[in-house]
């Protein structure tokens, strides 16, 4: 009560709390004092109570952690600390060994294939592979110059220098032995889903025919070579033949082939009495089949058996053309064979006849693929119909581009004109536009009604 009266009559005012110089460290005021770090002498392996005279007991855990040199890892660890590494490292080593084994196996298998087929390729073509060496005797058993490894599962080679043939591309696709996890997943998904094809080892060869265009395709470096080329090709018979799409297909590959290839979709499928039951013919005309299905071809297909997939004679693209440039005819012959599981050279004996017939088939086409006028007209009509569809689609795209361009120019003229008007004139202009739009909308509604 006395203090209250003093304050009321101007007595001594209570002092305001003075800011402390250590206000910034107020948060640490309640922190416990640090415990001194224990540094035992080098000749002791465990702390003793004498090292901590101010403490009655040792620091927590000090008696269970032995002191060792920094390099004595085995004294500070136990095998249980490396359980994760004991699982991961062997797994990585197994994957690495499988990868190396898979690549070597694929390379060895591709080498066996080219070693088996190289003599036949040399017999038919003047130049084989990507190396400058042209004679098989130059390789001395090493055919690495004939094959080129694109990936660990894809190998390619090339041959040229033959009458009626511009060049031939050969592609070998093997299993992904170097990546067993991916290979297992592909096999499982192909078993569960019909849309996914199971992985196979396949050889696919494509012959590009000259078709009477030797002068355009054979390169020359000088005028003298050009004159020599003209004189050389002048006496040769024409290498042209009538365009058609024709194929002999294993029935297991028929559905997938029709779905994947646009050119084969133009044909009709029919069984032939000379072919085995598991093979069928896909042709644009029966006359084409009678001309191309020779006795030698039937015998080669029968001997190849399940290793045979398809033989296609075509002038159309594989993918459906979307533009006129993509519909340009290009005559080709395509052979697809499954590779045997064995890497022994004798495993390729069943497919050698069909491969040899394939290499000589351009000669058969030049000789026999000349059909009657009615057949040629029917085949040409099919292609012209497809070209008309492409032209119509192309004209529609061009008309749409012209319409968009006209609208763009009209909008630019409108914006330029609108910028030159005052605010009141812009308002009236926009109102007239709105009224015109409403009238057009009413006309459309009345027409629909």
- Roughly how much helix do the residues carry, as a percent range? 40-55%
Radius of gyration over all CA atoms, rounded? 42 Å
* Average pLDDT over all residues: 81
What are the segments in which pLDDT stays under 50 over at least 5 consecutive residues? Answer: 41-58
> What summary fits the major beta sheet?
10 strands, antiparallel
Structural class: alpha+beta
Count every helix, treating DSSP H or I runs of 4 or more residues as helices: 11
Strand content: 5-15%
Overall form: extended
Order of helices and strands: HHEEEEHEHHEHEEHHEEHHH
Number-wise, the strands total 10
End-to-end separation in angstroms reads 98 Å
Question: Could you explain the architecture of this structure?
Answer:
The protein contains eleven helices and ten strands. Strands 1, 2, 3, 4, 5, 6, 7, 8, 9 and 10 form a ten-stranded antiparallel beta sheet that branches. A hairpin with a 4-residue loop joins strand 2 and strand 3. Helix 2 packs across helix 9 and helix 8 packs antiparallel against helix 9. The longest helix has 47 residues. It is extended and about 90 Å long. About 4% of the residues have low confidence.
Q: How would the blueprint of this fold be written?
A:
Layout: H1 2-8, H2 83-124, E1 127-128, E2 148-149, E3 154-162, E4 165-173, H3 180-192, E5 202-209, H4 214-217, H5 223-234, E6 246-250, H6 254-260, E7 268-270, E8 279-283, H7 286-292, H8 295-304, E9 308-314, E10 332-338, H9 352-368, H10 373-419, H11 423-448
Antiparallel strand pairs: 1-3, 2-3, 3-4, 4-5, 5-10, 6-8, 6-9, 7-8, 9-10
